[in-house]
Every structure is written in C-alpha cells, then in structure tokens.
Amino acid sequence: MVHHSINTIAKGYINAGMPILEEDSHRSISPYEFLPSWFFYTPVVIQSFFLGLKHFDFALPLIANPSIKLSGMVGESKHDILTLAGPVAEQWISPFITITTTASAIQQQTQNAIDEMNQHQLFFPVVAKPDLGCRGVGVKLLQSQEQLTDYFNSFPINARFLIQEKAPYSAEAGIFYVRYPNEKKGTIISITLKYSPMVVGDGLSTLEQLIKNDSRAGQLAHLYLPRHKSMLNTILEKDTEFQLAFAGSHSRGSIFRDGNKYITDKLAQRLDGIFDDLEGFHYGRLDVKFKDINALMNGDDFTILEINGASSEAAHIWDRDTPLKTIFSTLLLQYKILFEIGALQKKQGYHSPKIKELLAAWKEEKQLTLQYPSTD
User: For a FRET experiment, which of 115, 133, 264, 323 has its CA 20 to 30 Å from that of 213?
Assistant: First the structure.
C-alpha cells in the first residue's frame, strides 16, 4: 500500500490530531444510524443459519476468540480481555484497575479505590466504565474523588467497573483486526474515526441555543440537552469549544466517519506484534486514542482503551455517506469471517458452547446494563 501524510489535521483540543471534519453538506447524520438493530441484523441471522447448516454447528462464532468468554459475543469482561496481554502488548494498553462494588460504606469503598489508584499511579481525571457492557453504557469521565463517590453510589452492588487512565491523546478510532488461526499476519478490515461532537461559543448564544442551531447537534438534541441540563443557560465565550459527548459511541451521539483510506501496512504490522503477545484473539475491534492520524498510520503513538470481540461492528458503516447496501454487505462479510475462524478453531480442538450459555450471559449483561449510571 502507498499512503501519503495527512496535512489537514484538527488543531483544537477536543478532536486534536484527527483529520479535519468536513463541513456538513447534503446531510449531517446517517439516515440509517438510529434505526433498530433488527433491521440490519436480520440478513446476518439468515446468513448465519445457512452457515451453521453448512458447518453443522451454529455456535462457531463463540469460539473464534478462544481465550475470551463466548468469543466476546456477549457478557465478556473488559478486565479479563485486557489482562490477557503479556509484557509487550501491555505497553500499548491504557493503565487501569478493576473495582468490585460491595454493600459496605460508599466512603470506605471510595477511599479503597483511591488508595489502589495511588498504588498504580492513576490520578484524576480518570475514566470509569463498567466491566460488562457495550456501546459506551455507563462510561464517565471522573474529575475528582467526589465524582468517584457519586459513581459508586450509582453503580450496582457486587458488580465490577474499571478505572482507567485518561489517554494523553484526544483523537480516537476503532480499528477492526482479523487474524486467521495459524497465520502470522492479520488484516485491518476497518478503521472508524470517532469525532467528539461539540459546539463553539460565539459570546452571545446559550449552550442550549448553540445545540439547537447546530446542523447535526440540533437533530440529536434529545441526547445532548439532558446530559448538560445544568449548563444549558450558560453563554459560551467566543471560540470556546464545548464537548457534547465523551464516550466514543455513535449511539451516545459521537460522530463516526469512514477511515478506511488510512489503513496501512505499518499499522497492521504493529497490531501483529501486539497480538503475538495477547493469547487467543483473532477477531474484533480495538478502541484506541492516538496522537495524530499520521502517527497512527505509522503504527506509533496510540493507546488501546478496549478490545472488543465477536460482537464488534466495523463501525465505519455509520458514516453518514455509507449506502445501505454497503452496511449490509459489511456486516455479512464480518459474520462470514467469524464462522470461518470458528470452524478453524474447532478443527484445532476447541468445543462450541451451548446456546443456553449465550442466553444466560446476555440476560446477565442486560440486567446489569439497566442499573448502570448515565453515560457522559
């Protein structure tokens, strides 16, 4: 592959290092972005039925990543996945600790967490996120011990969450990586650039007015207004950037753009080296923060926030300009690869779990998700 440096890089602070987000033209959000999941996954279910018949096993996707519970289809632990990393891979993962809530006094739990943070040199601001969960649910940026106490208060008892270092970079991407068993090299099949939505003050308008008057934010005001209700009457100074969403999930209001043109051999080689030192991962999406797009293309200056398994999406499909046909074909290709990897793992001796295990994990995750705090 031949790639050229990107000179048009955002200079602000919220999306610093990202390729400049082009001005909204014919539309500002994808017409498909917020349709129900069943609409997109019905063809996947149909294809999976026939692939299951072909291989005489409908559960092959659940062994594609044999070191991850149910391959990461549902109910996987962020802690368990990230701690698979050996000393080489660990250097590329944002430092974190894992906290289990109890029925004891919240203040004592907070102090215990602070003590553990100090032991691991984690200092505010930090990111708190549920150990089980997806699509950015329950993710919060914590600026103080008081906010950590509030997080404990809002979190279910006997559940786990991660406290992770806030990445030193602002730019964010989702990188979908696939490596077939017994192959030394993997392939990047998708890069999604994740832009934090923001408005810029003019010295005259309130935050609420800026949101409602923005071509994109105005269409998603139902997501942003409740999240910032204490600030809605604030008039932002001229040229002041205000971040509307922190969690890098399109369902929480982040902006996704197709970044496949930034896929490089150097980045793929870097991921090969990382996953040489992380056992049993063959299919999924990494959520990363990076210094700037040129560094990412060179495989340098990035940090891994999460590693997601079999249920991952090649999220570039939520670019506003992605045709419906491409969304369907991308999802179908993903699950075709997932079955192929699962079939190869079965030949190597891995046994498919029973579907009831999948249903039990899904039920547990759903029940927990309903109890999580709101997302920033």
Answer: 323
Please state, in angstroms and rounded to a whole number, the distance separating the CA atoms of residues 4 and 14: 25
State pLDDT tens for residues 136-174. Answer: 688 999 999 999 999 999 999 999 999 999 999 999 999
Closest C-alpha to 195, from 316, 299, 297: 316
* Distance (Å, whole) CA 341 – CA 339: 5
Chain segment 340-351, per-residue pLDDT in tens: 999 999 999 999
Quickly name the fold that domain 44-94+168-196+247-367 has: D-amino Acid Aminotransferase; Chain A, domain 1 (3.30.470)
State the greatest distance between any 2 C-alpha atoms of the chain, in Å, as a whole number: 66
Question: What are the tens digits of pLDDT across the range 184-193?
Answer: 999 999 999 9
Q: Which two tokens stand for residue 337?
A: 């690869």
In single-letter form, the type of residue at position 308 comes to N
* Element at 191 (helix H, strand E): strand 187-195
pLDDT tens sequence across 246-270: 776 766 778 999 999 999 999 999 9
Each domain of the chain, given as residue ranges in start order, spans: 44-94+168-196+247-367, 96-166, 198-244
